[in-house]
Amino acid sequence: MTFLVTGATGPIGRSLVAQLLYAGAAVRVTTRDPAKAQFPSAVEVVAGDFASGDLPPNALSGVAKAFVFPALGGIDGFLATAVEAQVPQLVLLSSLSAAGEHDRDHGSMSNVHHLAVEQAVVKTDIPTTVLRPGDMANNLLYWAWSVKTSGTVYGPYPTSAQAPIHEADIAAVAAAALLEDGHAGKTYAMTGPQALKRTEQLATIATAIGAELQFVEISPEAFAEQMAQFMAPGAIKMLLDYWSDTVDEPDVPRPTVEQVTGRPARTLAEWATDHRTDFLV
Ligand SMILES: NC(=O)c1ccc[n+]([C@@H]2O[C@H](COP(=O)([O-])OP(=O)(O)OC[C@H]3O[C@@H](n4cnc5c(N)ncnc54)[C@H](OP(=O)(O)O)[C@@H]3O)[C@@H](O)[C@H]2O)c1
Questions:
Q1: pLDDT score, position 119
Q2: What is the pTM of this model?
């Protein structure tokens, strides 16, 4: 039984490939750049751009289930290829923002993108499991440069509290949906196990790397101005709305990871330990 993993060179995809191999599964991945991808020899690597469907003719032959990465710009090409190849089942990576649980979600960059991808998958009629993770712990990697160079992080809303999820837990739920029966038609909203203030998130990283770090509050306007050179205005707005809302209404942790995988969701302390080297010079 072969499982296809798209988006395999990212943090979620790499963890998923490792977990599938550990379970003894046959794994095929797509990547636009096989020379850089560097997978274990047991992995079958297919060169091409899955999102546009620009894949070799046999890329999807014999695939039992496919993990679908929500490429920006859409995945219509891949879905057309999957329908043609009669792929029996899909596991789609989406986002909690697609659930539209909060006013801030409606029309946000992530909501619009992930809802469009979900709707495109529904139209294929291929039975699908939809994964809707909230805030990924990996978003904290954008602190790495400040941590390494000055030990000081500047940001707004220091008391806002989120429940960041480890990429390996998103992958673990994906692996369960691929390897086991009974997940088709399910939508899994998932978060990390604990809501932590942004100052507590930084303190968790400080403990993992054995350093003293400080969080210095700046205004939302100053943050927006600083980030304008790195991020689209819609992404900055989405972040500020999220942090502003979660000052008074912290993220509510979901039990999904444990319910689906049978093991507790990884804590932020575990994530920080796994990513120590990202924060060390
Ligand atoms: N950040 C969050 O808080 C959050 C929350 C919920 C959901 N998410 C979802 O999680 C995703 C990030 O996951 P990740 O960090 O594991 O992935 P990633 O590193 O952003 O991307 C994984 C791989 O997907 C392929 N890819 C990316 N964009 C593509 C495109 N437009 N066309 C074709 N291939 C493309 C690339 O592979 P090759 O270069 O090898 O082809 C890339 O290395 C986000 O994009 C979002 O959809 C994020």
A1: 98
A2: 0.98
Predicted local distance difference test score (pLDDT) of residue 57: 92
Count up the domains in the chain and report the number.
1
For residue 138, give the ligand 1 atom closest to its CA. 1
Q: Tell me the CA–centroid distance for residue 74 and ligand 1, in Å.
A: 12
CA angle 37, 39, 40 (to 5 degrees): 165
Task: Domain of residue 60: give its range.
Answer: 2-133+166-190+252-263
pLDDT < 50: residue spans in the chain: none
Of the candidates 46, 74, 77, 40, the one whose C-alpha atom is nearest the C-alpha of residue 62 is: 46
Q: Does the beta carbon of 234 sit less than 6 angstroms from any atom of ligand 1?
A: no
CATH of the domain at 57: 3.40.50.720
Token pair for residue 54? 């620009």
Residue at token pair 């047991």: 42
Determine contact, residues 172/20, Cβ cutoff 8 Å.
no
**Domain contains 235:** no
**Helix runs in the chain, H state only:** 11-22, 34-37, 76-84, 109-124, 144-149, 167-179, 198-209, 220-227, 233-248, 256-261, 268-274
